[in-house]
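Can't attach files on this board, so I'm pasting raw text. These are the components:
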Amino acid sequence: MPSERALQRHAKARPLLEPRILRSALRDAFVKLDPRVQARNPVMFVVEVGAVLTSIYWGHAFFARESSSGFDFAISAWLWFTVLFANFAEAAAEGRGKAQAEHLRRTKSDTVAYRRSPEGSIEAISANLLRRDDIVVVRAGEIIPGDGEIVEGAATVDESAITGESAPVVREAGGDRSAVTGGTRVLSDAIVVRIAANPGESFLDRMIALVEGAQRQKTPNEIALSILLSALTIVFVIVVASLYPYISFAGSHASIVVLTALLVCLIPTTIGGLLSAIGIAGMDRVMQRNVLATSGRAVEAAGDVDTLLLDKTGTITLGNRQASDLLAEEGVEIERAARAAWLSSVADETPEGRSIVTFAQNLLGSAASERTPEGTTFVPFSAYTRMSGVDLPDGTKIRKGAPDSVLAWCNEFGPVHTGLMPDIERIARRGETPLLLAVNGNVVATIALKDILKPMMGERFARLRAMGIRTVMITGDNPLTAAAIAKEAGVDDFLAEATPEAKMNLIKHEQASGRLVAMTGDGTNDAPALAQADVGVAMNSGTQAAKEAANMIDLDSDPTKLIEVVEIGKQLLMTRGALTTFSIANDVAKYFAILPALFVAAYPQMSGLNLMHLATPQSAILSAVIFNALVIIALIPLALRGVRYQPRGAAVALRTNVLIYGLGGVIVPFIGIKAIDLLLQALHLAG
Amino acid sequence: MTLTGWLQAVVIFAVLIACTKPLGSYMFAVFTGRRTWLTPLIAPLERALYRITGVRADDEMNWRQYALAMLGFSFVGFAYLFALLLVQGSLPLNPQHFPSLSPGLAWNTAISFLTNTNWQFYAGESTMSYLSQMAGLAWHNFVSAGVGIAIAVAVVRGFAAKGAGSLGNFWVDLTRACLYVLLPISIVAALVLTAQGVPQNLNAYRTVTTIAGGKQTIVGGPIASQEAIKELGTNGGGYVNANSASPNENPTPLTNALEIFLILLIASGLTYTYGKMVGDTRQGWAIFAAMFALFWLGFAAIYHAEASGNPLVHQLAVRGGNMEGKETRFGVAGSSLFIEATTGTSTGAVNASIDSFMPIGGLVALLNLQLGEIAPGGVGSGLYAMLEFVVLTVFIAGLMVGRTPELLGKKIERREVQLAILAILVTPIFVLIPTALAALLPAGSSTLGNAGPHGFSEILYAFSSTNANNGSAFAGLGGDRFYYIATGISMFFGRFFVAIPMLALAGSLAEKRPVAAGAGTFSTASPTFVLLLLGTILIVGALTFLPADALGPIADHYLLYAGRTF
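---
Top answer:
Structure tokens for the assembled complex are below.
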């Protein structure tokens, strides 16, 4: 499967942080100290205010030569580190995303475009100046200057710059393979392309915006989570601020530096500091799979998908069905039937057509070398007639196609009779596609086309089922064939004899019962359904109409890619949930570190609350602050990679994650803070 | 701790479980307009009330209309009680000739009864006329409980609705809550209490000569009827100052058990009603389980602390549990159970002095208030406060399974999180900030009964209690203008700034069409979810209040064991 190969390729090619990204992230971490940047993130803004405040106290203590100045310095330094670590996480995620985006757009910027004016003159301009609906001419050897649609001509195009696949592909005007992508190279012939997007509006541009923190639109779940985190921050500001008068009431005095340290430890800095990095890294992972998303919302919606519509051909089966049998109508000689089959398909360039020709040749033996008569017209297959065939110069009309369509065609000539119905049914039941072959309104034979399933699809559907996603196979086959293939492939349901309307109705029906639907498509007649679906993935090889209707584009044109996007969407939410839980659970241990240290001056008897037996109040507070800062750094890899995702039921996933991040979140800081305290003691760094 | 002590709790709990389903089904029938066995008796009265007041029973309200009707009704009720208390001296049914109340006290008392808090800065038997008791306070005991049930039912309708925006009709819900639920049970309970010796008369107080030759005033009045709704409606405002510690209100261990049962009855019944209304009774039992897990945890902690007794008393060679401030007829177990029930709900009735509990016993009572009264909580308010935590838990847990979180098939999104958070923010704001003010201002500490951490506990407990609409108190705080105003504000926001966001949240959920649950959605009726819900409640509650509590009861505890008392 190409996508999984691609996945492994990327996984090998990309270490978590390349030195170049690391360097720029370190620099950006300081640039992002700008309060205007921090104000976007209320949690980290509070930390930065705390860092400024404690720095002022330290400055005061330093010049007044107070004994506390060493402690104040340590606290303020670690608060600055906390902000810097969070900034670094975001900058690192951005760096990775930008590196990926640059990889995709590398060739794009310095391309020369040959724009054709309405009068027909051609001028050379920079590709960056192209507007929507400009017409450009691209000749062999040139790079296509922007995303667009071929309006004239056909060409072989090397898309390896985008997809990594070296085999060139054919792109031609009209039909479902008319779209071209900026940055790809025309290998042969010349094409005229209508540009589809203004500068800065192409899919790639939109994708790049998703991995740049400053412009990034937050996704709906991210906004809801930010509200929760801000509210928790408000609660802790009230909790800590009210402690000042409470401690005064108890006849003691609370240090502002210690209270600030407590506040920073309590507010959810772990998730607050990593939230933006998680979102950017999620988009980056999508891009690594060679998928362009128009919004983070679409990726997040992919995680919520309940129903997945998959085209049979190309997704579930290899797409080239092979003729496996030919049964002649009663009273029709097998040679005559085979010859009709040969004639009907000899001009048919589809893999099915070619396989019928081969099969007929085998039956005919030496007679097969015959040529078609001059003046034969080929009638191509269409989704509406669901037949193809030839009209011979002597007036003979041969058609092959879906049995009901061919019978309907025969009926136009007069009453029709066939004894092949039991055979047709038997073929269909085997999961093969029966075609009916007719000459001038008379049925002559039925041909069986055998579908070849893609390997490993059963496993993928089982994976989806484990996630709670229902798969529906869409096929033009008759219900019997569809049922047999559906069973063999392991999909949950199927839509047989599908027309674009039936597909649309299915989506609407699923949505009306509250489900989120995802689908892939490439043709112009898929566009309405792609737009209607909650998640629509267009193949890069598809038409511009399909691409515009979709909210994601798969550059590899691999319909199974949707499964990976769904997993990334889920992983994105899980990572946020897990780190939120971890962050909140951490606070329990921090209370047991800081509260005894804070209250012990007023009530020395309360040292019993010091469960961890931390050496001194100063060491306890400093250890908690250091742990709080270091945990951000420790979790950057998790934020960038996402939590390990396994397809399994919600109940199991919930139990596992609660145990790891909830219970783990309670226990880990007890160990961490104690360890830092021991270290500080060993190094004689805190009172 | 003794076996009989535990048995007492287990028996009451067993009866409660047995009543949960029948009462829950009955309330389900009442609030969904189905026929009940009391319908032939009450329906004519109900219809007559609608005719007189001009209520159109089949008008549906959206959450705004519902909240406005509720606020309007509450405001009128407040004005009525405020006026009544200001002029009671010149009104009839006042055989003891009590004067009218001061405006500050009348204001505070009116808010207190309006919000189902029943915080009392006065002694009932020496302040309130029979008219004020019956027509003022008892009226509010009924309708404030009725309003609580109505809000809960409306909220549940929103959770259960399938895309319709309506939450029902406030006037109908209120009327039915009072006529079909509160009145019948109160009448039966009042009769039992009277049979056990609780006074029910309109006579003047009697002064008698005791056997020892002293003079004693014996209080009269309509106490039994008041007592029944005081417990059933989780109001808690005592007819007399000693509240349920007084033999006038709570004469025997049997009445003690009955009162505990009444306190818990409606809140637990409503969990079953919730399950039925959302079409899955397991959802209701999950909430029941979470509520009573908290209840048993709290009871075990209080009972253990009180039964262990005071180490300083033990040094005097006096063995046994802590009996200071407790009635001998209830003992340690009966008092611990009553206090857990009254602070785990928004009742605030007391049969012992919480002030005299061991610091850990007091801490548990305090935490019950600070968690927002959900074990099992006040009538109606317990359910909707618990649902607010359910929404929060679903949001955090839902993210962890990799889907936009869903509750009963409805997506929990930005607006729902915002509203649930708003309701959760009210508690720290209106407990911690007023406590800080009281600790700073001379007016806050001038009337304290104790010094040190115990004095701090008195302040913290007062605001925790008023904000949670409980009404119980550590002793000590005197009535003055600072506390009249500060507790009044705390009670007002504690009631309406939880109820209104919850109505809005229900309104928002009501408009969403539910999605069928699949393998990708986790069940909110599973034991895992109940544990997660408990974890969320305890961690959110503890993180918010542990620092303050540490300077109150927890410091008190450490100092006590170090030999210092206050």
